[in-house]
Write a structure and sequence with these properties.
Layout lengths: L9 E6 L15 H4 L3 H9 L1 E6 L9 H8 L4 H4 L4 H7 L9 E10 L9 E2 L6 E2 L2 E3 L9 H8 L3 E2 L2 E7 L4 E7 L27 H21 L3 H8 L7 E9 L6 H5 L3 E4 L3 H9 L3 E2 L13 H14 L2 E6 L1 H8 L2 H21 L5 E6 L15 E6 L13 H4 L5 E4 L3 H8 L9
The structure holds zinc ion (ZN) (2 copies).
The site of one zinc ion has 7 residues, from helix 3.
């Protein structure tokens, strides 16, 4: 719902996996507390802080579900798997009702050492044994492979196919009456036979039938493709089959801009979150040097946010580093990347608009001691026009727990911002 033009612009910085639990090697501090963060501390002193449960208290959040929540949606209602966001993230045209998958280019044995690939006449499924799930970590020629599969039609269902990075790709099945409750075809293990997809209901049975035929067709087409003949000649494994997984039906989420009365941009490092932004019709801005790793150029990202704020009201930026370090279980690396983020935020404050409304938080915790995502509350910082400073003078899980914003959930963030931007329509009379 568009109202008046926003009075202030806002930057929403999401530090992926920022939250943590007390770490023994850091003397019981969290990485955010242990890190030297003069900018974030200054902003905390001049702003208001709190704790946020990205989805709900204790819920262990994925990055995609958490970002949906942070952008104002209820992931329990709208999330149907990562497929649609993965596909959108590689610029595929995802539409409501599409059944989307992530795909691995893989290798099935194509000799007498194992079952020779053959199509089951009853199901149309491929009977073959997986030799390598990543086709020898293929990183060249996948555009040619994708081209050979894109645009097929099976039982009246349109196949859209596009390569992603390395052995990954996206698959969309577009047609009437397709369900998404289908079982996997990828056995997720070498030496195992490809599974036959099955549907749990009539619509999903239709999807399963198309999926099984697609996998068989992919083998039929890819085994003789020039790219693969060349790979074999070079002693490499051919990408002779496409194995879909991670199914999801594209949900109807509408347009973030229309919903919130803003013009928004999305600056991120990973395809999955890029896909969330794409899907919500945010302007996607790719930054050179944003690698999604610990070596990422976060200063370049900060400058991109500054630039985007020139012609956008709402800029979301995800910096991936803390999550990487959290998965690695490396407390020092996590504290270090938080310090680098602190420097990037300084650039944003110094060079961005004077009346900038800034929200900074994490999309979930990635506790060092767990090495994976947690359901903990994460620190939240709010600074800018209209924000009354509280008594807290540093940023971190402990200090934020005593802040004036209290404890809230991720879906509250966009309303908190659009309220302060003076753009949110009144609820009621
Ligand atoms: Zn995340
Ligand atoms: Zn993660």
């Amino acid at each position: 719902m568009a109202g008046d033009a926003p009075k202030y612009k806002s930057a929403f910085i999401i530090c992926d996996g920022l939250g943590d639990r007390p770490v023994a090697s850091l003397g019981g501090k969290t990485p955010t507390e242990a890190a030297n963060t003069p900018t974030l501390d200054k902003l905390a002193a001049g702003g208001a802080v709190g704790l946020m449960y990205p989805i709900a208290p204790g819920i262990v959040a994925g990055s995609d579900t958490a970002h949906l929540a942070l952008l104002g949606f209820d992931p329990f209602e709208c999330y149907t798997g990562r497929g649609p966001f993965e596909c959108a993230g590689i610029d595929m045209d995802v539409r409501k009702g599409d059944v989307c998958f992530r795909v691995n280019f893989s290798t099935v044995y194509d000799d007498d050492s194992h079952q020779k690939p053959a199509v089951d006449p009853e199901t149309g499924a491929l009977k073959a044994v997986v030799q390598d799930r990543r086709a020898g970590r293929i990183d060249e020629g996948t555009d040619k492979i994708a081209e050979a599969l894109d645009g097929l039609e099976i039982d009246g269902v349109k196949i859209l196919f596009k390569e992603s990075v390395a052995h990954r790709a996206g698959l969309i099945l577009r047609g009437e009456g397709l369900g998404q409750n289908v079982s996997d075809v990828d056995p997720h293990a070498v030496g195992e036979a490809i599974w036959v997809a099955k549907g749990e209901d009539p619509a999903s049975e239709k999807t399963a039938a198309v999926l099984n035929k697609f996998v068989a067709k992919s083998y039929e087409i890819l085994k003789d493709l020039d790219v693969n003949k060349q790979r074999v000649a070079e002693g490499k494994l051919p990408a002779n089959v496409a194995l879909p997984r991670g199914v999801g039906t594209a949900p109807d989420l509408g347009d973030f801009n229309e919903r919130n009365g803003v013009k928004s941009a999305c600056i991120v490092e990973t395809g999955l979150i890029r896909g969330v932004g794409m899907y919500l019709n945010m302007d996607i801005i790719d930054v050179e040097g944003a690698t999604g790793g610990l070596d990422s150029d976060l200063q370049a990202m900060a400058r991109a946010v500054v630039k985007a704020l020139e012609d956008h009201d709402f800029v979301m930026c995800n910096m991936k580093g803390p999550d990487i370090a959290g998965h690695d279980g490396d407390a020092d690396a996590k504290a270090k990347v938080i310090e680098i983020i602190d420097g990037a935020v300084k650039t944003l404050i110094d060079e961005g608009p004077e009346d900038l409304l800034l929200a900074l938080t994490g999309d979930h915790s990635t506790p060092i001691d767990k090495g994976d995502h947690g359901g903990d509350a994460v620190p939240f910082l709010l600074h800018g026009p209209g924000v009354k400073p509280d008594a807290v003078t540093s940023f971190g899980e402990g200090p934020c727990g005593t802040g004036s914003l209290g404890t809230f959930i991720g879906r509250n963030v966009v309303p908190i911002l659009t309220n302060l931007m003076n753009v949110q329509p009144k609820f009621g009379a």
